[in-house]
Amino acid sequence: MKLTHLDNKGKAKMVDVSEKEINLRTSSASAEVILSKEAFLAVKNNTVIKGDVLSVARIAGIQAAKRTSELIPLCHNIFISSVSIEFELSEDDNSIRITSGAKTNSVTGIEMEALTAVSIAALTIYDMCKAIDKSIKIKNIHLLTKTGGKSGGYIAGKD
Q: Which positions are annotated as active-site residues?
């Protein structure tokens, strides 16, 4: 397989997407944050001193998606039609599962925006809860789905 982000001398380059067709592209991604029981309950009960953790994490994830091309050097700056961030809290293991969804009408995909959104939302949860628990773990950041584009669709686990 030829790597598209390398020129013929093996140096990094931005892929030329000028000949590609605009079409609807979607993606979703997921991350998991594992907290101590004390930190988890503080988030769940909205008693963290820094404020409403999940609301701030949601806004941070949305903002991050919009700035992905500034954070990841070879990503294209694309128009984002929508970004969503959802949280699923589990008392069984004191975890918060973060899921993002992103949509664009563009010439290139929106996977990196969805992945950036969950990553920054997870880091925001860490930042807001670190005074309670410095052992917070962020794990399982991965693409769940993608649609559109030349390579077609993708659903995690359906490889």
A: 127
CA gap 108, 142 in Å, rounded:
19
CA–chain centroid gap for 12, Å, is 23
Rounded Cα gap, residues 127 and 120, in angstroms: 10
Give the CATH number, domain containing residue 115: 3.30.70.640
Please, are residues 99 and 86 in contact by the beta-carbon 8 Å criterion? yes
- Let me know how long the chain is: 159
Contact 113, 27 (CB under 8 A): yes
pTM above 0.90, yes or no: yes
- For residue 55, is pLDDT > 70? yes
Q: Which residues pair with 27 in a beta bridge?
A: 102, 146
| Residue range(s) defining the domain that contains residue 100 | 23-149
* pLDDT > 70 fraction of the chain, expressed in percent and rounded: 95
Q: How many domains does the chain have?
A: 1
d(CA 84, CA 32): 16
Contacts of 11 (CB under 8 A, 6+ apart): none
- Angle of CA points 48, 130, 119, to nearest 5°: 100
